[in-house]
Amino acid sequence: MIPNLDPAGRAIVYVLDDDHDLGAAVARLLVRQGHGAKSFEDPEVLLSTYAGAPAHCIVTDIMMGSLDGFALADRIRTMDTALAIVFMTAWPTTANAVDSVRRYGGLDYLEKPLDEARLLAAVAEGVAWSRQQRDIRARTGTLSPRERQVFDLLVQGHSNKAVAAILALSPKTVEDHRAAIVAKTGASGLAQLIALTR
Amino acid sequence: MSSPPVLLLRGMRDAGRGALPQSADLLWIAGYAAAFILTHRFAAAWGGQGFYSLLYPPAGVRMALLWSRGPRLTLAIVVAEMAVQTATGWIVPGEPGWITNAIGVARPPLVYGAVVWLVCRIAAHASSSLSIAPMPLGLASVTAPVAVAVVALPWALLKPELTGVVGLRQTYASLAGYTVGDLLGVLLLTPPLLWVIQAAREGPRRVFWPETRLFFVIGEAVLVLGGAIAFGLLLVRIDLGVPSIPALLAVAWIGLRFGRTAGWCAIVIVAAIVLPWTTGNMPLAERLTLHMSLTSVVVVGYLAGSFADAQARARADLARRDRMLFQAERLKTLRAMSVAVIHEIGQPLSTLALEAKHLHEITVGADREIAETAALINRKAASLSMLVHRLRRFGGRALDEPSALPVSSLIETVAALVRPEAKGRRVLLEIAPVASNLIVLGQEIELVQAIVNIVRNAIQAADGCVQIDAEGQGDRVEVTVTNRCPGHQAPQPGMGVGSLVARAILEAHEGTLIRETDAAGMVRATLSLPLVGAAG
Fold it and tell me: What InterPro entries does UniProt report for this protein, alphabetically (chain A) (predicted)?
């Protein structure tokens, strides 16, 4: 897991558009806003570099030559579920707008020419969401498989006793696991544990 | 909705009111009375005892008046003919049998009026080739004289003193002669009278054919008719009777080939040869046979010509519809192209707008000239982006869910779309501020289209200024488009489809469209739509 993507603490945003000029312009805009932004023209290039250099947010065109924005979203989600995606298009349709949010987990659907304020707001929101997701994953990632089982049952609202019964453990063992979970995630109580699953 | 009895009563009331001549008709009636006296006297020169065996021109005048001014003049024509016949002493009130005489005078115009009314009604509702002009006139011209004879038959048999003829044979001969006379009168006289009336109303008609074509038409017609007549005369000369078939075929050919005008000219020529020949002393049977043959020739020639004209008109209608289809197809292509262009522009414009904004931001503190130029570029790029968004919203999407739409934003969009055209025509668009609480429910693109059509019509007809207002009236909003119309105007280019489309869209939104012109020449199109929610 990558707790911090950028040494300088900036959020990483990839911009993907087969129009190089537009991709570069959007990337420059985001850099000026304090993001670590980089533009790509070819979805395959982005996919091949992504594994080694993940990002917080991707701003992608939908209509592209080889691989469209939706297919890219599907493939990149299998690599990273904590990535925010913002779609942009010069061919807006109602059907695509709905699909982009409901089926492909997009954060927003922007029409070209881009509304700058809306683009920046969407990216900021995406970065914040991605950071939170990565934080949660970082904290729960260190749990042992048994601790993970206990954690999942606890956040569903089961008492220690019930968890012990379900997992066929002694209540004492469950108590120990719970203490370990709290120590590893830094959560101070059940409420904070539940918040980690959101 | 009114119930059927109410509609029937209203129809009867309207019919009663419509049967009375209006002041504009009085001159026509007076003219008709004069023409009736003249042609009646003219026909009396060869009128036989109790019937008109040759040609009865007043029938043609009567049909021409009924056809051009409408069957509502029937009663007025009856009154005029009775007055004339009373003045000439045919009807003498008080004398024995005067009522029978009066009925005999009133019957033909009544039957003519009824036939014309019936033919007009059927033609208006039928969609066969018989309902295309000038076929209805041809049908009425042939049907009316026959109908008069059919109606008169029982009277003639029951009251022989009316026609002054007795016996079945005489009665039939009289009625056949009557029908023949009326048919010839109507078919020979009505068409030229109607042409004169039409020419007086619309100015002289342009020649239908190009001149070289006209030359060939006349050549062929003369050849065909001349050959037929020569052949007929040859048969007469060598004592083989008077065959009408060659003339019949010739006029049918001419009518079908060249239409009603040519057909009519041909039957006039045939009638001009046959009629004088039969004025002399001739056995009744022989003369009647000749006249019946002549009538067949005339009827066939005229109907063939009318049919050819109707076919030509139907073909012209079809061609016009084809052109409209082509036009619609072209518009569809144009729309697809403009949508593509809008999208293609959107791409580079995105880059341009982003960079222009950046340039503007970093040059705020720079040299004044640079800062101003950058600000200008930014402004223009932003307004272009807005335009692309607006155009795409209008042309790009095929259908939209109905949504709540502020009237003010509808009118804003309309204004943006029509402003270039208004400018091009030097028309000032005056748009009153619209209250923001006026909200309607509907498809934005369609409603914009409807209002655009109405405003475009106003711009095309206006002299200088078009005003758009929107006001709430209870639970509805009324959008009024007002323009001053500079008197009588040539029809505008286009197919008149714009306001039809606007009306259809508004009615689909439970709205209405009313167009009115006030005494000052202001044309006002008011569209009304239901408001939604807590407006008001």
Answer: CheY-like_superfamily, Sig_transdc_resp-reg_C-effctor, Sig_transdc_resp-reg_receiver, Tscrpt_reg_LuxR_C, WH-like_DNA-bd_sf
